[in-house]
Amino acid sequence: MPEGDTVYLAAKNLDAALAGGVVTRFDLRVPAFATVDLTGLRVEGVVSRGKHLLMRVGGYSIHSHLKMEGEWHLYRPESTWQRREWQARAIIGTAEWTAVGFSLGTLEVVGRDDEESVVGHLGPDLLGPDWDVDEARRRLLSAPETPVFVSVHEQRNLAGLGNEYANELLFLRGLNPTTPVGAVDDLDGLLTTAHRLIHANKDRSVRSTTGDLRPKQTHWVYGRAGQACRRCGSPILKSQLGPTPLIQRDVYWCPRCQPELGARLP
């Protein structure tokens, strides 16, 4: 699933191409909004909110979420698309650019004054101008018994972190994923690292949490089950952890660098 930095960069590129332009083509390929036509209205801007994207056109906002496979592409008029047309769920064009949303998990139109109905549930946005560490801390501690991996993954606590960042963040902080969030000694340090980590990647085409952009060198633990820890050499472990038995996510950790709470290091 795309992380908040992916959506941030998509919104930044869409805004640079479309903002100020008048819509000349408008096609939403979802039944509930197939008859909506915003042709002739001006694109006021495109912004991200966590993993959500809001394209503001006239008095409306086109709300989308990429989910697992979604993407926004930009094309010059009449240029060849890189994905099949049947995968397009949104086509929004101006005189100079055409934005195409492929395989979008969520696509809807709301009034500009009603944006909170689709993103108001989100916690503080790590990439937003109104990032609020105090509010983020308060939300995390509202359920202190929750495993820290689940807590930082919950978009109602922190908007923008996905599975890659959740795993990498806990490794960098030396926290076992099952540690109750209320037992984390330095929660502000955790939030500071999360903020710094996602900001370091927000304008990159290649995400790296190690600082190394070379292939297969970009992650500490994520996707590296069975491989040697880059710090201590112990095999990276993999399991699943989630808020409910039906919602489980892949979790990776180093058993030596991230020992369970109260465990003795060998």
Topology:
Elements: H1 4-18, E1 25-28, E2 43-49, E3 52-57, E4 60-65, E5 71-75, E6 88-93, E7 98-102, E8 106-111, H2 116-119, H3 133-140, H4 148-153, H5 163-172, H6 187-201, E9 237-244, E10 247-253
Antiparallel strand pairs: 1-6, 2-3, 3-4, 4-8, 5-7, 6-7, 9-10
Helix pairs in contact: 5-6
Question: What count of domains describes the coordinates?
Answer: 2
| Whole-angstrom Rg | 20 Å
- Total beta strand runs: 10
Query: Main beta sheet: strand number and arrangement?
Result: 4 strands, antiparallel
Task: Give the CATH architecture of the largest domain.
Answer: Orthogonal Bundle
> Portion of residues in helices?
10-25%
The shape is: elongated
Q: What name does CATH use for the topology of the largest domain?
A: Helicase, Ruva Protein, domain 3
CATH C-level class of the largest domain is: Mainly Alpha
State mean pLDDT (0 to 100 scale). 95
Strand line-up across the major sheet:
1-6-7-5
Strand content: 15-25%
Provide an overview of this structure.
The chain is an alpha+beta fold and 266 residues long. The chain has 2 domains: 4-119, N-terminal domain of MutM-like DNA repair proteins; 133-253, Helicase, Ruva Protein, domain 3, CATH 1.10.8. The protein has 6 helices and 10 strands; from the N terminus they run αββββββββαααααββ. It has helices at 4-18, 116-119, 133-140, 148-153, 163-172, 187-201, and strands spanning 25-28, 43-49, 52-57, 60-65, 71-75, 88-93, 98-102, 106-111, 237-244, 247-253. A 4-stranded antiparallel β-sheet has the order 1-6-7-5, with helices on one face. Strands 2-3-4-8 form a 4-stranded antiparallel β-sheet. A two-stranded antiparallel ribbon has the order 9-10. A hairpin with a 4-residue loop joins β6 and β7. The chain is elongated.
